[in-house]
Every structure is written in structure tokens, then in C-alpha cells.
Amino acid sequence: MSPVFSFLCARPGRVLRRAVALTLALAAVQSAAWAAPRWDAPAEVSQGRAFVVRATDTQPFTASVVWRDKTIPLAVTEHADGWEGRVMLAVPIDAKGSLNLTLKDSEGARTVKVEALSVPWHEDRLTVPPQYVTPPAEVQARIKRDGEHNARVLASMRPEAEWTLPLYRPVKGSISGPFGGRRVFNGQPRAPHKGTDMRGPTGTPAHAVAAGTVVLAEPQYYSGNVVMVDHGQGVISMYAHLSAFDVKVGDRVERGQIVGKVGATGRVTGPHLHLGLMVQGVAVDAMPLYAEPLRVVGGPTPEDKIARPAPQNKAAAPGPAGTKS
């Protein structure tokens, strides 16, 4: 795993300096007792972004973090130059201010601050069939079941970490709907877009972003035909609006394996893949986790468009046009 992913989403130019400062601070507070393992974590993370916390030592160890009131063990593996533990965490899309991150190992615990950087989220105005804005009474029970089922799946936690970085690109199409956009359907405001819409004609293969186990494969009201893959340690990917399934619940999939075909099922304006990434139950922007930035239709790359802190006293830029969900 490339060290750059230990500092995903942190402000460029400051991350290495802050990482070194964090390491020195830990050593100063814990003195010689904190000599092992060595911890690495970012000091700043943008809203709606994932980040990786790492710990390294020359011998086996156990460690965990406490993040947003949840204790999560690090997945520790052996490498040529020692042992490394890692865990992926997430800053919610609406997080503000400083968040506490507690690092725990056999020598004690240390709490550090992670600053949530504001993002100038864009707004998308979309037109869809009326039943997807104000669902009729006969589908309300189905929508409730979908939500409850999804919540149970997202609450699962396997200690093994099968995710690897960078992620595998699920389709080759450009982005028509970036993560985080404030959605307005038929003139009515709705929740922010908690995924990324990627262009692709019906029938285009959709690939798993990382290895894992299929934990959901079914038709749902809003998401259409949807697949979820559990990559372990609370990291789950979602592939929505599919025209066909290529996997079933319980299947083991490898990184890059086809899980379904792009389609236009559910609440959509046309065929595309909606890719979601949930980390510890929090939806995050998957785009920074790819080796190369993906192009946004009619605009700059997601890194340029939505990754930077919000400028003071400036309005958010409008979102690009394209096929969305």
C-alpha cells in the first residue's frame, strides 16, 4: 500500500508536516513507553472523505482506534520490514470542527484532533417520474424494508481488512454526478448525493472496487437492482441501478471482478452506475481513493471540484450536467 493513502484527503502541503508533528507529539507525551508502535494519522480531512490510520512496529502487536464513539481494531499484517496495522475511517459529509481520534495499544491511549475541512458542495436539479419524489402509499412498506435491510448490512463488521488501495475503477465512464451534491428532485429538496454517478451504456460490466463478499444483491425501490460488497473492517461498496446481476449473496469476489451490468433501474434519469462507498456506516467520496482522478462531465476533476476547503464568502459552483440518480 502506498504511504500516500495514509494521508488521504488532507490539505496538500501540510500533511507531511502535520504527520511528523503528530508523531513527535505522541512520543513527547508517552515518552519511551510510546516507542512502539509508530502511529500515522492526518491532522485535517475534508467532509465526506475517508482516511487511513496506520501503526507500524518491528514485532507483532495489537492496537485499536476510537472514532465517533466506536472502537475499531486495526488489521495487523506482516511485511518485509516489520508489522503494519491499518484501519479506514470516515469524516461525515456534515461534520464540523475538530473530531477526536483515540489511538490505543498495549502501552496506553492518546487522543488527537482531526479537523473537518468544509467543502463547497454543489447543487443538482433533476427531473424524475413523480412516484420517485412522492412515493404512493402502496410502496411505502417496501421503501421501509429496503432501508432497514440496508441498515443491517451496513452495521456488519468483519475484523479482516480485504480492501486495498488504490481502488479498482468499476467502469471506464466519466462522472456525471459527483458525491455530495445537494439534490433537488422536481423542485423538492432531498438528501445530498451519497455516491458517485459514472456514465456507461446499459449492459456495461460493473467491476468490484476491491476483494470481498457479496452481502446484498436485490432490487430496491430507489436504487433499482443493487449489489453491496463487504470488504471487511466496516468498508462496503455499493453498485446501484444495475440492469443485471452477476453475483449473489454469499459469493466471494476479487478486485476487478464483474458484479453486474450498468442499467437504469430505480430512480434515475438514464443508464449509469451509482457507486457508493460506506466506511463505518458513513457514506464517503470514493474518487480520491483511485490511482488517477476521474473526469467530471462538463467540469474539472472531482479533486479540483469538491476536494478543497470552502472559500470564504463565495457561493458553491453549480454541478455538472449528465445522467444521475
From TrEMBL:
Signal sequence coordinates:
1-35
The record places domain M23ase beta-sheet core at 192-285
User: Which Gene Ontology MF annotations are present?
Assistant: metalloendopeptidase activity
The domain of life for this entry's organism is Bacteria
- What are the entry keywords? Signal
InterPro entries referenced in this protein's UniProt entry, alphabetically: Cell_wall_metabolism_enzyme, Dup_hybrid_motif, M23ase_b-sheet_dom
Against Gene3D superfamilies, the record matches this protein to: Glucose Permease (Domain IIA)
Q: Region (Disordered): which ranges?
A: 179-200, 300-325
Protein name as catalogued: M23 family metallopeptidase
Task: Provide the species name.
Answer: Candidatus Mailhella merdigallinarum
